[in-house]
Design goal:
Distance between the termini: 9 Å
Radius of gyration: 14 Å
Helix content: 25-40%
Strand content: 15-25%
Shape: globular
Largest sheet: 4 strands, parallel
Oligomer: single chain
Order of helices and strands: HEHEHEHHE
Structural class: alpha/beta
Number of strands: 4
């Protein structure tokens, strides 16, 4: 499970999930679509919500009302820089590829952990799950 791998990596750095800010990039059930029905990302979100101080969701392809309607989740317009301890790239939207990994890293603090679940950025030094 993704959460266990995140916890393991944090433990190696003597950090715990409790006080962290997390960003989930992508919430749809597949890349480049806006459908949130049957998305597996919701399970990640629910698990994180139980263990983490703050979880933000960023998916520009989803209408805010959809996420509120289906999952009662607030979506952010765009992530701010230097905010997140953990970033999970959970859907390989072309838009995220266009943003680029350097910009995505800027959303995180200096010691940000980035989990690229869908191998969106191959050959980068990221943690793949």
């Amino acid at each position: 499970e993704i959460i266990k791998k995140i916890e393991l990596n944090l433990r190696k750095q003597n950090r715990s999930l409790k006080k962290l800010n997390c960003l989930i990039m992508g919430f749809t059930f597949k890349e480049n679509c806006n459908d949130v029905r049957n998305t597996k990302v919701y399970d990640i979100y629910k698990s994180l919500k139980l263990k983490v101080k703050n979880v933000d969701v960023f998916d520009p392809l989803i209408e805010k009302l959809h996420l509120k309607q289906y999952h009662n989740i607030k979506i952010i317009k765009f992530p701010k820089n230097n905010v997140y301890d953990v970033i999970i790239i959970s859907v390989a939207h072309d838009l995220f590829k266009k943003l680029g990994i350097k910009k995505i890293k800027k959303f995180g603090k200096n010691n940000v952990l980035i989990f690229d679940v869908k191998n969106t950025f191959p050959n980068k030094k990221l943690l793949y799950l």
